[in-house]
Amino acid sequence: MVWSQQEIHTLIKLRQNTDQLYWNILERLRRAYWNNIANRLNNICNSNYVGNQCKRKFNNLVTVYKNIDRYEVNDQRRKRIQAYRIFFNELKTRFWEGPPDQHDVAMDTPTITQRRRNVRARRRRKERRGNSENNR
C-alpha cells in the first residue's frame, strides 16, 4: 500500500505529539501504542493501516532522514531524497530519540579528574604562549 503525503505527515505528527507517552511505556506495551497510532491515523485519514505498518513506516522515515542528513552531498539517489525532503523539517528535531537519561547527562558532565586535566592543559597552553612571546 502506498502512503500519501497527508498520511505520512499525520503519522509524524501523531508520533511527535505522543512522544512522551512512547518513552514512558514499557517495551512490551509498544505494540498497543502503535495500534493506537494506527487507529487514530485511520480515523483522521480514512485509511486502513495496522500498528505494525505504522511502526515500520515511521522507522523507515527515520532511517531515510538519517541517511539524508549524513550523505546528502554525495548521495546518488537524488530522486528518492527529493521525495522524502518534504518531511525533513518535521524530523529535524529528532524527537524520536527520546529524553536523555541519567547516564547521558552524567557522561556530558565532566568529572573532577577531567576538570583538573582541562585546567592543567589551559595553564600549559598559557605558559607556552607566554614563553613564545618572551622569545620574540
TrEMBL record:
Coiled coil: none annotated. Residues 1-62 form the Myb-like domain. Residues 99-136 are annotated as: Disordered. Residues 114-128 have a biased composition (Basic residues). It comes from the Eukaryota. Pfam families: Myb_DNA-bind_4. InterPro entries: Myb_DNA-bind_4, SANT/Myb. This is Myb-like domain-containing protein.
